[in-house]
Design goal:
Length: about 350
């Protein structure tokens, strides 16, 4: 397969129009058969709920080229199931899990020339989304829906990749205690734009959100989950009903315990007890693992391992997770799904 003319090593996280995207429409109580299309635009009613009431959700996942040329998806069933949960939260028609996985495979196969080669450090990011469309005025679920998946070749989300970056604690909340924080719905991200912008203007990579009820515990690192390694080498990650259940986070909990032999805990992470950690990181599909150099809170910077070098445990977590994703290390049953070419 001839590859697109792309410098894979300098890719960041930006939109590139690739050849084909999958689209399926829900109308009169059912999804159509779906198809791959060339057009990267969608024409929908001006009265679509996605425009006015934010009735939308999305996913993020990646495809990888293995050393032997196989093409691998990482836990696509988990993304499919999480999208079902997001749909239920904002009352949209669910796209079936088996069809979601099949559509991902079709999109990857139709865009192989954009799939970064093994060893380039890049991957093909898949962006499934589901939106409410059709004529509607009142605040109610849409009469029709669109499910689509497009893909983009990507490199590091946070500048520097495995080089540590600093974060600052946000004054804004990203979610309400019983709100939509655990769902991957569009509105959560609109609400995060201003605090992200403020953090970047202060010189940070992004902001960290505290729990909306008490503002004492870490919830999310921008669009990624948090983890910390305690001085006695436990892998800790926050537990909260208002954070996104990150597939990367749950994968790392398993990797830390079963591959690295660390004790793991999902529990509260108090922002005034950050000195308990000797390493910290942000984890997510886009972020992969981004080491946290330091966290700024009220003018004080809590530095973890180093502001310039990744810590040894964070590196092992990164190497093991990406080793599984690229097919170099055998992962748990079902984590890696091969795309038949
Ligand atoms: N938290 C938020 C708010 C996110 O947007 C994401 C990205 O999907 C994550 C965490 C990480 O989740 P995952 O590991 O499933 O990509
Ligand atoms: C992801 O990691 O897939 C995300 O959704 C993060 C962000 C680009 C929204």
């Amino acid at each position: 397969m001839e590859k697109a003319y792309i410098d894979w090593s300098t890719l960041g996280f930006s939109y590139v129009k690739t050849d084909k995207r999958y689209i399926s429409r829900w109308k009169d109580g059912k999804w159509d058969e779906g198809a791959l299309v060339d057009d990267n635009t969608i024409t929908i009613s001006e009265a679509s709920t996605v425009f006015h009431y934010g009735q939308s959700c999305f996913e993020g996942m990646k495809a990888y080229t293995a050393k032997d040329g196989r093409v691998l998806l990482f836990r696509p069933d988990e993304n499919a199931k999480r999208m079902v949960q997001s749909c239920r939260r904002v009352m949209m028609s669910e796209f079936p899990v088996d069809r979601f996985i099949e559509a991902c495979k079709q999109v990857v196969k139709a865009n192989l020339k954009y799939l970064p080669p093994y060893g380039s450090g890049a991957s093909l990011y898949l962006r499934p989304y589901l939106i409410g469309v059709g004529d509607n005025l009142g605040v109610r679920p849409a009469p029709e829906y669109i499910f689509s998946i497009f893909c983009v070749p990507v490199g590091a989300y946070f500048k520097g990749g495995l080089a540590p970056v600093n974060f600052t604690i946000s004054d804004f909340d990203r979610a309400a205690p019983n709100g939509t924080g655990a769902a991957k719905v569009g509105g959560n991200y609109a609400g995060s734009l201003l605090s992200h912008e403020k953090a970047v203007k202060k010189g940070f990579a992004d902001c960290i959100y505290l729990d909306p009820a008490t503002h004492t515990k870490i919830e999310e690192v921008g669009a990624a989950n948090f983890f910390g390694i305690t001085h006695d080498e436990k892998f800790i990650t926050p537990k909260s009903p208002s954070i996104l259940p990150s597939i990367t986070k749950y994968s790392l909990l398993h990797v830390a315990k079963e591959y690295l032999g660390l004790k793991t805990e999902e529990r509260d992470v108090h922002v005034d007890k950050l000195a308990e950690f000797k390493e910290a990181g942000a984890c997510g599909t886009a972020a992969v693992i981004s080491p946290i150099g330091g966290i700024e809170n009220k003018g004080n910077l809590q530095v973890f391992h180093s502001e310039t070098e990744v810590g040894p445990i964070t590196r092992k977590l990164y190497d093991t997770l990406t080793g599984i994703q690229y097919g170099d290390i055998v992962g748990p049953e079902g984590w890696v799904v091969e795309v038949d070419l």
